[in-house]
Write a structure and sequence with these properties.
The complex is a heterodimer of chains A (435) and B (391). With 435 residues, chain A is an alpha/beta fold. Chain A contains 16 helices and 11 strands. The chains are: A alpha/beta (435), B alpha/beta (391). Chains A and B meet through helix 6, strand 5, helix 7, helix 13 and helix 14 of A and helix 5, helix 6 and helix 14 of B. The structure holds iron/sulfur cluster (2 copies).
Chain lengths: 435, 391
């Protein structure tokens, strides 16, 4: 039996009120960024994992995230031409397509999603968390923008724990490099109480975000924690963490989700509410953005909801208890960076996915392996085996790319998904999935 | 001088290179009870600490083009470089079953994730991801690095069942200082008289240092340098070039030979960085961890896996190598799908463009078979260099 999609207005893309609110916030942010040359606000470019928005705000800087720009280029189907542009200028076809999309966008006038030119950064805050590519990416941007570059290294959580040596290292970098340089660039003196205030606000929003993500434990799940989840994490992984706007948004979102639970509703999809949840999945890896809606549709059309995903933890693993802590401001920023998903060791990633499958009562694991992303992809085949072994639930592997349309083959992905759903059915009916 | 010929020395080095069972390291371990071998991947680990604990550091550079990868491919997608899969193959096929520990230096996400895979696949082996600082102030990166070295030492002490003293480490630094000095001498010889010490030979001799005890390797280097100086070889009309980008997954030996056949004198490269990482003599009379840290932060090689804090310095190591060796061009040879090398490459090329230095670029894998295109590309490059210098 096919699931029903309840359509209110058939030809329209359906959105929750929270999605509209989120969109407005993002639009406002992009306008603020593009207005910066007029308003005199200074811009700090930085990365999503290990994004120190609270600290950036202490210096009245506006946060610009090149990964989010690449996502926007992907969604607007511009990334393909940007990537080609970068390749024509000497970048290898083998490397991370986020970088090439960003560089290509820069070469083509740096036009943001609002159709306006994005400003040059006044400072590159290279917070190196969970991916070596970041390091090269900002070296490449520094070459173009010739602006001060601040380096903040997050040690890798290889042994599954945070050691005092790691925290000390990060706090020293913050105190002796990052903060003094941000003071210099911005002309604003650092005020630790201001930071504490922002961190307090972050923690509030984080509580609500966790409640939203964990609502997927309900049956049916009121949210899709991957495709929908990407909307939910936008404000907190981006430029809003630590603001009143974020607190309001997550409160609003939480209420909306609680209402959905009360009404027994499934997740909202671009085609309306999905009813008749058939499969509950855990997804590892980033999505494809160039065919985002088409990709999502392949799930909801089959009645598949993603109940937990690792990708929605790249900007923080709040569901395992971490909260920004105003009483230990710098240490807490360090712990935040250390904890992001891509900074977690492979055994930790396996534990996390196993835990999701059990806690969210999922039918299995789906891995979307990104061709150009070593940070996520190297080791995913072992992750798949281990998770299957430890949960007894079937796992499947698909391959796409984040923003390179050349690597999204709809027919292949659909085939894989269909056979995966069959595997889940077989498993349920006790026939096993040996074939 | 032992009177060994270059041929004899290179033959021994090549036998070590060809031996995928690491027989020499196994024999070293079995020679005395209680001995341990610690494997490590490229680019850099402080081998002094392993040596000071009475152990043999064993450099693992993948399986090359001689290893049949049967299991390893099941662990990696086609769009990931080859070294991790052939390393997994070495592990799963039992070729590394005599190794008590494995160190995974912080080079890139692939090696980083491989450390976790090793923990999962080989739970009885001591596995350490060896994190290194990317900030270079003594009080910041240096303190962190000393902390990391202490952790490594504790791990090694647990395996050895004994404490490692500062004197032990200082003594080890001294032997490795000698090793580094000899390697510098070998590279200087190559730059000065490249026909006397061809790159393919020097490569094998340097690479033997990954599997031999350092004392033995020092003797081999000494012998080779002496023999290479003493042997008269014909001078060819080749062009001197620098090879860069080969710091991790290794090219097949044939690739280096093909470059030579195409008319290149390869006078500098980034092979076996572990042995050449520290560029100056490390003091042996103070706190050894501080000395190693200081050397790491202030006197170490530049490579794609390292952050360059000073933009003006980016790529300058190539210009300096050109001046030091008298090279006439640069060959960028990078492993397919190697993000660090390939993302770094355009920045280095811009530096060379500005300095009017010619270069070419190609990609390879450790099991690349077809050398013809590379030979042709390199041949054309050499011709153009010659034309250029004649003009
Ligand atoms: S995590 Fe992956 S997609 Fe993101 S910058 Fe790193 S390599 Fe690129
Ligand atoms: S070849 Fe490059 S990408 Fe592959 S493991 Fe080595 S450094 Fe990493």
């Amino acid at each position: 039996m096919k699931p029903t999609i309840v359509k209110a207005r058939p030809d329209d893309v359906q959105k929750d009120a929270s999605m509209i609110l989120q969109k407005e916030m993002m639009a406002r942010h992009y306008d603020r960024l593009c207005d910066a040359p007029m308003t005199g606000e200074k811009v700090a470019s930085t990365f999503v994992p290990g994004n120190l928005n609270e600290l950036i705000m202490c210096f009245d800087l506006v946060n610009n995230l090149p990964e989010v720009n690449a996502i926007q280029s992907g969604l607007r189907k511009k990334s393909g031409q940007y990537i080609m542009e970068a390749e024509r200028s000497g970048h290898s076809e083998d490397v991370c397509t986020y970088v090439k999309s960003d560089i290509g966008m820069m070469m083509k006038g740096n036009i943001g999603p609002n159709g306006r030119e994005l400003p040059k950064p006044d400072v590159l805050l290279l917070s190196y968390t969970g991916c070596f590519t970041f390091l090269k990416w900002f070296e490449l941007l520094r070459e173009q923008y010739k602006c001060p570059t601040i380096f903040l290294q997050t040690p890798y959580m290889a042994d599954g724990k945070i050691t005092p040596n790691m925290i000390q290292y990060m706090v020293r970098q913050l105190k002796e490099d990052v903060i003094p340089t941000l003071e210099e660039v911005s002309g604003v003196k650092f005020d630790i109480d201001r930071l504490r205030e922002y961190l307090k606000k972050s923690a509030q929003a984080e509580d609500d975000l966790v409640a939203v993500l964990q609502s997927a434990k309900h049956k049916p799940s009121p949210i899709d924690a991957y495709f929908g989840g990407i909307y939910y994490i936008g404000p907190i992984f981006g430029a809003f963490r630590g603001t009143d706007d974020a607190i309001e948004y997550y409160k609003f979102l939480r209420r909306e989700v609680e209402e959905r639970i009360a009404k027994g509703l499934g997740p909202i999809t671009p085609d309306g509410t999905m009813e008749g949840e058939k499969y509950r999945l855990v997804v590892e890896g980033p999505p494809n953005y160039t065919s985002f809606r088409q990709f999502w549709k392949m799930f909801y059309e089959e009645g598949a909801t993603v109940v937990a995903s690792s990708y929605t933890k790249v900007g923080g693993t709040y569901d395992f208890g971490f909260r920004h802590d105003p009483d230990r401001p710098l240490e807490s920023l360090a712990e935040y960076c250390l904890n992001v998903y891509t900074n977690r060791s492979l055994p930790m990633r396996i534990d996390m996915l196993v835990n999701y499958i059990n806690e969210y009562e999922a039918d299995g694991l789906l891995i979307n392996s990104i061709k150009s992303c070593n940070s996520f992809s190297a080791g995913q085949l072992l992750i798949m085996r281990e998770v299957e072994k430890r949960t007894g639930k079937p796992a499947a592997f698909i391959e796409t790319d984040l923003v390179d349309p050349r690597y999204f083959s709809a027919a292949n992905v659909k085939n894989r998904l269909e056979s995966y759903f069959q595997m889940v059915e077989q498993k349920r009916s006790g026939k096993g999935a040996a074939a | 001088m032992t009177g060994k010929t270059t041929k004899e020395i290179v033959a021994r080095a090549e036998a070590l290179y060809d031996d995928l069972d690491f027989t020499a390291a196994r024999a070293w371990k079995e020679a005395e009870p209680g001995r341990h071998v610690i494997g490590h991947l490229p680019i850099y680990v402080p081998r002094e600490l392993i040596h000071a604990a009475g152990m043999l550091p064993l450099g693992i550079m993948g399986g090359g083009d001689r290893l049949e990868v049967i299991h390893g491919d099941a662990y990696y997608q086609s769009y990931i470089c080859r070294i991790p899969r052939s390393t997994i193959e070495l592990g799963l096929s039992g070729r590394l079953d005599f190794v008590s520990g494995m160190l995974f230096p912080s080079i890139c996400d692939v090696i980083r994730n491989l450390s976790g895979m090793w923990m999962t696949l080989f739970p009885d082996v001591y596995v350490k991801y060896f994190d290194t600082p990317q900030t270079f102030e003594d009080e910041i990166g240096g303190q962190f690095y000393i902390g990391e070295m202490r952790e490594l030492l504790e791990g090694l002490e647990r395996i050895a069942g004994r404490k490692v003293t500062d004197d032990d480490i200082n003594a080890s630094i001294a032997v490795y200082n000698e090793n580094r000095a000899l390697l510098r001498e070998l590279y200087a010889l190559r730059a000065e008289l490249p026909w006397q010490a061809p790159a393919s030979e020097a490569y094998l001799v340097a690479r033997a240092g990954l599997v031999l005890p350092v004392e033995e390797h020092n003797a081999m280097l000494r012998d080779y340098i002496d023999a290479a100086r003493a042997t008269r070889r014909p001078i060819k009309d080749n062009a001197k070039v620098i090879l860069t980008g080969m710091f991790c997954e290794q090219p097949p030996l044939n690739l280096i030979k093909s470059l030579e056949l195409a008319g290149c004198y390869v006078v500098d490269d980034d092979f076996m960085l572990v042995a050449r990482w520290l560029t100056e003599e490390v003091p042996t009379d103070g706190d050894p961890l501080e000395a190693l840290s200081h050397a790491f932060l202030h006197h170490s090689m530049s490579t794609a896996a390292k952050y360059e804090p000073d933009e003006a310095e980016k790529g300058k190591f190539l210009i300096r190598a050109m001046e030091r060796t008298g090279a006439e061009g640069v060959i960028f040879a990078s492993t397919s799908f190697c993000d660090p090398a390939l993302l770094d490459r355009p920045m280095l090329q811009h530096v060379l463009d500005e300095a009017n230095i010619p270069y070419i670029a190609f990609k390879y894998a450790e099991n690349s078979g077809q050398m013809q295109p590379i030979r042709e590309q390199a041949g054309t490059f050499v011709d153009s260099i010659k034309l250029w210098s004649a003009a």
